[in-house]
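Case 477 in the screening queue. Each case pairs one protein sequence with one candidate compound; here the compound is nicotinamide-adenine-dinucleotide. For every case the pipeline is the same: read the inputs, emit a complex structure as tokens, and attach any notable structural observations.

Predict complex for case 477.
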Amino acid sequence: MRVCVIGTGYVGLVTGVCLAHIGHDVICVDNNEAKVKVMQSGTSPIYEPGLSEIMQSAMSKGNLEFTTNVSTAIANSQILFIAVGTPALPTGESDTRYVEAVARSIGFAINGEYKVIVNKSTVPIGSGDWVRQIINSEIEQRNLDTTPQFDVVSNPEFLREGSAIYDTFNPDRIVLGGNSSEALSLMKELYQPIVERAIPANDAIGKLSAETVPVVTTDLNSAETIKYAANSFLATKISFINELANICGRVGADVVQVAQGIGLDSRIGNKFLQAGIGWGGSCFPKDVSALIHTADDYGYDAQLLKATVRVNTTQRLLAVEKLQQVLKILKGKTVGLLGLTFKPDTDDLRDAPAINLIEELNRLGAKVKAYDPLIQSPEHHSILSTVDLETTPDGLVNGCDALVLVTNWQEFANWDYVQLAKQMNTPIMIDGRNYLDANVLAAAGFYYIGIGRPTAGNSLVTKRLQHNSLSIDNKVA
Ligand SMILES: NC(=O)c1ccc[n+]([C@@H]2O[C@H](COP(=O)([O-])OP(=O)(O)OC[C@H]3O[C@@H](n4cnc5c(N)ncnc54)[C@H](O)[C@@H]3O)[C@@H](O)[C@H]2O)c1
Ligand SMILES: O=c1ccn([C@@H]2O[C@H](COP(=O)(O)OP(=O)(O)O[C@H]3O[C@H](CO)[C@@H](O)[C@H](O)[C@H]3O)[C@@H](O)[C@H]2O)c(=O)[nH]1
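Case 477 output:
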């Protein structure tokens, strides 16, 4: 089928590349010329494992191209995906101006052939009808002899950054919202290879499940609500385990063991129960806020969702509280951050907990150093101009009074903590993701503090802290 994807951020690019991989003819459109040039040269503008490989293979077969010419792409395609950003406005509601601009472009360029307009962006509930109205009003202004025919379908995206290719070819479900049987049947045809797991083999894709993918068909509003509900539920699940971690720390229980104990109950499930210094990224924060805002617009006070956000706001600064418990005054101290991105296997810093942590450490007068495998120059975010970005583990820890593990990058599990402990003023590790082995760290000479779990090892550090006229409070976990 002939497909055009408008907006080549994470979602648009992955969608376009994956649809091309299963044999569709795909044109990806973006209004950022520099980005389009990069993609035309076969390079992915985002870091995502496996993406470049599949992108280059689809381009070499001739069924994937990139352009800034939106009108030609629209006119030549049967299925048009809207995949532009919907960031949060300062009020918390979703900024839909990019979706509106694309809807206008579609109304301006749509021709006689029947088309399906697919909303892949996460949009406020009711946007499907709104997009249809915008397209119709643009068409009316053209005074055409024959009115172009189209339908709008909501097809929310559930991929995770860092495993986007795997998630696209191994979805738990495909959600299609709309009331046109013609449009829904074209969408089912489009996704048939994914539903049937008939994907051309590629090392980057991983092992496909044997079962066919459930396709959930709904009305437009329900499909749009499913997207917000899924992200809000997952964020609430993490805030729940984080709240529990705070209780565990106080009563002397270990939240990692508690999560295992509850996660084996199939009604609860073991995923998204990893306690830490809070959830972030380009989706959870803005989508939970947008749902709270929608509820508010319709006269409902979404109390549980507001609590989910409150717990997360506190959790993002928990590492500072723990640093103060061991180091007392942070002014003049040096803190090293292991990781900056909101999760591993991405270079995305959007709404990353590291940003709040750096702001607060700056406010308290601490010096901040950081090491992230993918963030090694300050242009990624303005806050990084206040941070010493290091490119080696030695460079990071040298002269530090404490470390905070912010992102659970796999390489952090393999660092030589015996050597690193020797280079620090005081070898203290706040493990913000409960990712490291507490006993290994303690044996290496670290004073290890996790999130909602017992501390480990302190004899060597106690001596050094005493030397610095400090003392360790053993109840810091
Ligand atoms: N990032 C994710 O992991 C993820 C997952 C699921 C759903 N979503 C949702 O998907 C949507 C897109 O997210 P993203 O992170 O890919 O966005 P993004 O902001 O990274 O990228 C959007 C792209 O659209 C382009 N664009 C903007 N206006 C345009 C126009 N008029 N014409 C052509 N191109 C235009 C921009 O140049 C940019 O490249 C959002 O609604 C988001 O909530 C994102
Ligand atoms: O047990 C957990 C799991 C995740 N996180 C944090 O939660 C955030 C989000 O993680 P994740 O969901 O893996 O990343 P995203 O790529 O933002 O994906 C989410 O947001 C996307 C955009 O809407 C959706 O498509 C995905 O289904 C949804 O998982 C990150 O800060 C993680 O560190 C935890 O703290 N504990």
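Case 477 observations:
- Residues 471-477 have pLDDT under 50 and may be disordered.
- The domain at 316-467 is CATH 3.40.50.720 (Rossmann fold).
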